[in-house]
Amino acid sequence: MPDLVDVVVIGAGAAGLSVAAISAGLGLKVVLIERAKMGGDCLNYGCVPSKAMLAAGHAAAQARGAYRFGVRVSEPEIDWAGVRAHVQGAIARIAPNDSVARFRGMGIDVIEASAHFIAPDEVEAGTRRIRFRRCVIAAGSAAIIPPIPGLGEVLYLTNETLFDLEEAPEHLAIIGGGPIGLEMAQAHVRLGCKVSVIEAAAGIASREDPELVAALRDVLVREDVAFHEGVKVDRVARDGAGVTIMLGDGGRVTASHLLLATGRAPRLAALDLVAGQVEASPRGITTDAGLRSVSNRRVFACGDIADPAGIGPRAFTHVASQHAGVLARRMIFKLPAKVDYAALPRVTYTDPEIAQIGLTEAEARAAGHTELAILRWPLVENDRAVAEGIEGGLIKLVATKKGVLLGASILAPGAGEMAGTYGLMIGRKLKLSALAGVVLPYPTLAEMGKRAAGDFYTPKLLSPAVKRVVGWLKYV
């Protein structure tokens, strides 16, 4: 007879670990199934190693730019083995938080095997069959392998293999100019590699505000990243130990290594969703806004693999945490709960970073907001930026005519660290007066937002009517 449990969680990435921990903490009998590494993509192949490598590149860039402050140092020597040790060390330091031992210590039954449905209320993992009252699919996503002719004949990298390179790439060609492609382009060019980025769309970072992207592109071009934008890859071919990429415009790029960064797709194939009566599409598990399967009420989905209410998946670790909170209320406590992406932040961790919270100007107009207040403040007008020699950044606020914030776009060092303020404002539907009136420490880059918000009220403050009132008040 199969075991009967309260909750079975398939996938031990950020989403699955959070759901399993919450469920077990509330006294439920939980089985957690993971076929690969605990911690999933974020810990092992994504957020953690990529940010560790970016940190190494940032250190090299700081050394090269120190002369601007009157500090003379020689060209930094890149020790690739040391860079790898730093990257793997970051993973190793965090790994115990996500380990099998820790979760078994919570009373969770961890099964290290692949899982698939054998019935609407039953899964099989290795030699075990488990019946469940509730199942949470949190199997995550994997790098898309595009159907490029010749790709099967060449060696290529994805985020799962990039950080295993024992030697630095001489020339890294990256297909894809989204967040992963741009982050890895800057990290590698700063670590002494030649880098080319190929993007089929009209421009890199196509989801982000064009004003900010233009400034970021200028930075990356100055750092010698080569861009091929608005051009498709016709085919690829082996070239000795490397690869030649033939482009749709007749050009070609010959590189030592090829990285695919063309997006991600949900891991659906191994789950046998038909047996579980779980509806899905290429976008992921089809759920309602509360992350419950539309076809099997026992089943929920969260993280990259969830496609809630046609909104579409969001492949961010912080979304996985948001989903876990929704499931705690909806699945465990039976309370109304649904995902809400109105204040969702996303960050591309280049230097400077691009952070987007809520809607861009284009997204706001597409959503039907025809009368908008657009407020900008350049980093060059920020005292902290001047003191640190930072140039080229910008904050752009998108608000209604009544001053309710809809979105914030930030290009600046540490933009992601500023995102929480704007997420709180959008989530609570706060007006710009809340930001304009806040007291911030001086000097900080965060003052950009306060100054931009203040500009919303300046025309009213300096209006003739207000001046007449002030003229009268001087006699009182």
UniProtKB/TrEMBL annotation:
NAD(+) binds at G176, G177, G178, P179, I180, G181, L182, E183, E199, G263. InterPro entries: FAD/NAD-bd_sf, FAD/NAD-binding_dom, FAD/NAD-linked_Rdtase_dimer_sf, Pyr_nuc-diS_OxRdtase, Pyr_nucl-diS_OxRdtase_dimer, Pyr_OxRdtase_I_AS. Its cofactor is FAD. Disulfide bonds join C42-C47. Binds 1 FAD per subunit. Residues 345-452 form the Pyridine nucleotide-disulphide oxidoreductase dimerisation domain. PROSITE patterns: PYRIDINE_REDOX_1. Keywords: Disulfide bond, FAD, Flavoprotein, Membrane, NAD, NADP, Nucleotide-binding, Oxidoreductase, Redox-active center, Transmembrane, Transmembrane helix. The keyword Membrane applies. FAD binds at K51, D304. Residues 6-323 form the FAD/NAD(P)-binding domain. The chain crosses the membrane at residues 6-28. Belongs to the class-I pyridine nucleotide-disulfide oxidoreductase family. This is FAD-dependent oxidoreductase. It comes from Plastoroseomonas arctica.
